[in-house]
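Below is how a single chain appears once it has passed through the pipeline. First comes the sequence as given, then the structure the pipeline wrote out for it. We keep one example in the README because the format questions we get most often are answered faster by looking than by reading.
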Amino acid sequence: MLTSEDEAVRRLVAGIAPDQVLDVTDPESWIGLDIRVRELAWQCPELFHSKASPSGRRLRWSPDASPPTVTWARKPVDTELALALCHPDGRIREAALGHAKERPALLALVVIRCADWAGPVRDRARAILAEAPPYRLAAHAALILRVGGRSRGGFTQNLLTGALRSGPAVQVEALLDSSDRATARLAHRVAVERRLLSMARLARIAGRHHDVVVQDLCAEAAVAALGEGTFEEFADVVVPLLGSRQPRVRSAGVTALRRSGRHDDAEPFLTDRSAVVRACARWVLRQGGTDPAPLYRALCADPAGRPAAAVGLGECGTPEDADRIRALLTHPVPGVRACSVAGLRALDAVRVDDVRPLLDDPSAAVVRQATAALLPWADRVPQELLCELPTEDRPRHQRVAAIRLLRAVGVHVQL
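Resulting structure:
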C-alpha cells in the first residue's frame, strides 16, 4: 500500500517540482521525504534509474562504481537534486550539496543534511547553511528546531538562535504567532531577551497564549519590569494577568500586586479555584501585614458565594479550625461540600464517619474529593456499603468511587 510519502517520491521521480508535491511549509513533509527516498532507493532502485523517467534520463547514479559517482546530463533541476540530497549513499548526498547552495527552494533538505550521520555531508551542509541569510533561516525555523533535537543537530539550532538574537527585530516578530510550539517558544524567549515587547504586550500574551511555557516566560518578564510602587502600568500589566484563565498566569499577577503596592487587592484571590493562586494571595497579604486566616474564617460563615474559603482555611488554618470546616460538609452548595472535604484533607483532619456519607452525593466533584480523602482509610469503610454502590442504577461517579476504594483493600471489581 502506497503512503503519501511514497506518492511524493514517485511524483518527484516523474519530474514534478517539490513545491507541487510537498507542503513545503510543513517540516514533517521534508523529514518524511528524506526518510522515504532513502528507503525506496534500496527497495526499488529501478524507480530512480529507469530510462523511462525524466530523472532517470538526466540523473546518473552509479552505486557500483568505486567510488560511487553522480553526474547529470545537464545542470540538475530541483526535482533531481531533492532526490539526490536524500539518497542513502552519503557520497551522492555530498555531491548533490555542491549544487544546492544556489537553490533556496531546497534549503530545507540542506538543514536536514546538517545533522547527517556522514561527516563530510554534514560539514558541507553546515557551510552552506551558515551562509544563508537570516530571513531564510527564520522561514525554516520549525524544521531547524526539529533537526536541532537530533544527536548532531545542535549546529542548526544555535545558528537560528544567533540569527534571531542579532538580526532584525521584524524576523522575531514574525515568528511570535507561529503555530509550531518550539518556534513560538524560541521567538518569545529571544523577544524577551532583546526587550522587543512592552510590559503591556507581555501581559496580554501571557493572559491569552495557549502554550504554558510562553505564558510563564511573558508573565515573569512583565512582572519583573514593574518597578516598586508603580501604579501607572497597573491596568495595562497586572489586570490582564489577573484575568487570565491560566492559574500560573494569575499567580504571577497576584504576586505583582506586592510590587505595585496593592496588597489588599489580593484578598479576592484567597478563594481562587487554584491552590497556587491562593498561596500567592496569602503571601501578598502577609507581606502587607494582613493575616489571611481570620479572613478565611469570616468567609466560612457564609461560603456560598466563595466555596474555596473552606479549602483555603484548611491550607493555612490551625487544628482548631477543623470543626468550622467540618460543619460545611452538609452545606447545600456542592462546591462548598467539595471544598470542605479538601480543607479537611489539607488540615489532616479527615474522619471516616463524617466523610463516608458523601460517597452517595449527587455531585461528582464532591464524590471525587470524598474518595481521595477516604483512600488512605479504605479499610475502615464497611465493604458491604461499598459493594452496594457499583450497581447499574447508581450514577457512574459513585460506582467509580466504590471500585477505587474496594481495589484499595484488594477487592477487584469491574466497572
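The chain has 27 helices and two strands.

See the next section for the split statistics.
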